[in-house]
Amino acid sequence: MKINVTPKESNMLPTYLVWVLICSNQIGVGILGFQRIIAEKAGHDAWISVIVAGIMAHFTMLIIVKTLKRYPSADLYGIHIDVLGKRLGKLVSLFFILYCIATAMMILRNYIEVIQTWVFPEIPTGLFAAVFLFLALYTMLGGIRVIAGYTFLTVIVVIWLLLDLYYPLQIAEWNHLLPVMEADISKIWGGAMSMSLTIIGFEIIYVLYPYIKEKKSVGASAQFGLFLTNLIYLVLMVVALVFFSEGQLAKTIWATLNLKKMVYLPFLERFEFVAIPLWLFVIMPNIMLYSWAAVRGLKRNFNWSQRKFSYVVIILMFISSLFLITRQQIETLNDIIGRVGLIGSFAYPFILYLLVVIKQAWRRKREAINDESAK
Amino acid sequence: MDKEVWKNWFSHTGDMQVINVDETEGRIKLYYLSSMADQKVIHERLLPRMKRLDLKTASISQLEQELAIPANQRVTKPETVIERLLQGNIYIHVDQESYGLSIPTEGKTHRNVTAPEIEAIVIGAQIAFVEELDTNLSIIRKYLPTSNLYCEKYVVGVSIPTEVAVLYMNGIAEQENINTMRQRIESLQVDSIVDASVLAQYLSDNGLTVFPLMQQTERPDRVVSGLMQGQLAVIVNGSPFAILGPTSLIQFLHSPDDFYFRWGIGTFVRLLRFVAIILSLLLTPAYVASLTFHYELIPADLLISLAQSRSRVPFPPLIEALLLEGVIELLREAGARLPTKVGQTIGIVGGIVIGQAIVQAGFTSNILIIIVALGALSSFIAPSYMLGATVRVIRFPMILLSGMWGGIGIAVGFSFLITHLLRQKSLGRPYLSPFFPLRISDLKDSAVRLPIKYFSRLPVFYSRDPKRRFSPNEADKIDDIDD
Fold first, then answer.
1. Which of A300, B203, B208, B262 is most exposed, with the fewest beta carbons within 10 Å of its own?
2. Residue B366, domain member (yes or no)
């Protein structure tokens, strides 16, 4: 297996898409109800936790891009082989692949859960899982360019949904935010930790990197994407804090959706029934990108066609979706992915960076010795 | 070819005419198809000059000299004779000679050039293509009298050869596109093509999609502006439609008169079409979805009038909508097939009689009639009839999806549509350009139409290296106020 990937020019993505892809892959189903979980830990200072988590994400992204820039055009799988050797590298890659599949599963299942709670209580999980996975498969078979196009177009369509925050802000109670810094550092830190499930998604850059045309400006574009996500999270957190009282927020599972109830247009009420179908456009890029990352990993490590692995992964996801039925099971999955994501997305990049630096330094040294002995 | 075949063909060709030039002996004969050849040529030019010779002894070379026929018109093989006759040539046969002579005449014209009827516009040239390749070529050449207009001729069809011409502007059209087009036409192995629309399907990148991947137009000005931007045009003998490619989806919403009007009006009309197409796909499904599943969406006042209007309807909204959409499609198809005069009557019958009666009978609600009519009207606004037909067809799966899963069904439908469009290509170029891949400089001519001064560069879509059309500074020079 080659460490570097060199795709055809026609399959590569322009750099401006990086921020779209990062931002879109971060925002998924977590955004619908992350406010309650953070406020549980940090109270009305939860917005500080969001900022802290955001800064941590920016810093991690810096390290990720630094790691990737040490290679001309490698992805995570190639780096693993380079740093950890063939067997161990493949094993760690397999963990990442499983993580990607599980995350895609988690997003899919949570969205279906939203549908089941708000719109169709009786609908079987398998039905919508099959429909959405078919859509994902159809897009994935078109390649990364089609996935990127889907993401780009849907972001443009959905980003206007943010404007509906105007309605809840009309009756906002800004005193809810006072006094600032009532929660101590450990509580704010706890809140920031709870953001992990919502904020993960930027690690997709590990797999996307070889497909980006101008690799110089990847860092800036990715950071901008992160910034946009953090800004959206911060705004949503603040609006939820000023709109709900602390007691109300603790009981509101999907705060973002509840905020949409405030929208009133002369021909439209209960805006959440428009927002939930539209949310399909928000979660589909997540499912596609994570499954694509997993499929890429399988193709790179096990040398089979990407098309066949796409079918395999999608069918696998469909079958496993049939076993996730109760709310408890979903919560357990969310919890596990939250923890794994915390380690995988925030701690692992630092370890990997260290390994890459050590490996390359060692290699340089050995080459120097070889050169000398050759002389 | 042996004599039997020749004789057989001869006796089965009723419009074959034979003239004995030397009256009695029948040594020199003229053959032609009365349906194809111009008989004036025979009587005004050939016969008088032939009579000057001594016809009893005249050899073929004497005839050749007298009539000033170039040597490449000599024909020896019977197959070639038949081929030439079918093209409208006159064939001169002299007994006991090794070759005959064929004289090309201008074949009969089919119809005169008229104003466009399918793509009629208010302002602009009132001329449309006809069924003849050479006439169409001459129309285009009159627009573009330049040696840079390249024209490559091909013959397509294994058993029925049809002449096909590929046109492009040298220096503007991208070589890659030209090669793709050439290769696709040359590798075509079909029995025959009847119309340009059939060829367009053969040339398309994907034969399965319902979306048109090549533009077809009867307007020369559209072809000319396409050529000037770097598109390739294909003209098929026997079809009054030219094929234009590569193309993108948004171009099916463009009409030449967007540029004939001032930019504000052009932009307004284009946005209107853009919104209309989306509404056409969304209106009826939204009605079905909200009345079947999400009636909470509708504010109370509106819901009351909706409920009143639906109170006598015995069907669920899905059946109601499918019924009415079916009626509209019936009317459209009947209107298209019937002669013009009867067609208008059908419009009145359908619009007023059926519309009124269907509500009174309690089959559908008033509001649905409004919605379906709006949707149908919106689909007709597309300047390309092909795209309008596509939009009308994909409404039905949309309605079904909305009837099954409400708003989520509509989202699933649109999601599929986006992916489907993203996967389409026209001559290898992305179909959703300039939206994806985003080409900011091409957005000037997409859902909007900006002022002419921004059009100094050719679109990026057709060529990787767009050239300047004019210097924008020159066009932009404005005197200061009160100078």
1. B208
2. yes
